[in-house]
Design brief:
Mean pLDDT: 82
Shape: globular
Helix content: 25-40%
Bound molecules: zinc ion
Low-confidence stretches: none
Structural class: alpha+beta
Radius of gyration: 19 Å
Length: about 100
Amino acid sequence: MSDSATSGVRGISVAAAFAGMRSVAPVVFRAGCPDCRGRFELAAGALRLAIGASSRTTFYSFTCPECGAAVRKPAGERVVELLTGGGVRTLRLHSTV
Ligand SMILES: [Zn+2]
């Protein structure tokens, strides 16, 4: 009967549910250290993104693998998009008043 058609629809809906949470191949982000002037590539797990109420309080941070300095840099809209899309852990600093 129409059993096969029903299971086919179910398969599609599962695929659609996962389409939104695509896990991309390991992404690396190029970063530079203002302290030791080292340049390196960091995996998404090495970065952290903090989103504040305004762009002035939105930044990303990482620890320099070469000198160990804690680096913090402002993140513009595009950087935020890039980082979140790459699976970087995001922290929201919004204090809703
Ligand atoms: Zn450094």
